[in-house]
Amino acid sequence: MTSTLRHLLIQRAARLQNRPALTTKEWGTLSWAAWRNRVEGVAMGLLVTPTPTGTPIHTTEPGPWAWATEVAAACCGLVWAKGGRVVSPSILGGSDFNSEAGRGPYHDREHDLLPEMPFTEGLAHQALLLRLQAWNRRLGWDHDSTISIGIDQTETRAGRAALWCALYAGAHTQFGAPAPLKNNHPQEG
Q1: pTM for the full predicted model
Q2: CA-to-CA distance for 98 and 85, rounded, in angstroms?
């Protein structure tokens, strides 16, 4: 089992490189390799200015940029929390996205990430990974699963849990119009 959320993303992208990871109206379909690049581009933007590990951040932007930012926060050792510092739009596809100034700090940060590092709602990386493992056993999601989620659900606790479960499983997540959460697993017919 992987030890941090950053390692989870790296492992999924390495294993499932060209398989679909995320489909959105704005971005089309991103492969796992492209999804990792998108997340790391946001992460590099987050670290353009020195940001201490454990700093709480959040975005008011719903949808794919919020999801990329949440995963990037985990990859940087930041805490995802409403009420945290609001992420600048310049990081979300703007001038600080994939910034060279953040590249070194992002790669240096990997050595500081530990399984017991807090991430969200009182959960450390390792605790969240253990929950994801248990949830995915119950859900039966894997890299052949397609998870459909409405944009309006991405900011809910259940929606965020589904996004993390899909990432853990290596599933293909599809963002769409507001709708009930659906799991289109091939074994369910």
Answers
A1: 0.92
A2: 19
